[in-house]
Amino acid sequence: MRPYAVTKGRTKPKSQLPLEALISATEAARNESGMLTPEWQAISDLCREWRSVAEISALLRMPLGVARVLVADMSEQGLVQIRSSLDNEARPNTNLLERVLSGLRKL
Length: 107
Fold this sequence. Notes:
Blueprint: H1 3-6, E1 22-25, H2 27-31, H3 38-46, E2 51-52, H4 53-59, H5 64-76, E3 80-83, H6 94-106
Antiparallel strand pairs: 1-2, 1-3
Helix pairs in contact: 4-5
């Protein structure tokens, strides 16, 4: 099926979704497995463990934009959880990163 048909013509997700955001299927997705579209079912099956949007795109061989739109739609329906690196709590400590970089340079 053509990507524009899968996303109903949309090219951007309704919410910002970075390619490194981690996605996991919810219990609701597992309970509704027979009622999901084939694309949503494939994402749900793949995301039984945390996967990035980029991984979903690559493993399902779908364009990144399509994966973003579908994951955002699934999130709105409560079918997936999203952990975004845009969360302040999830951001790594700058001092730690500088020490790691310094250590790598010494190698």
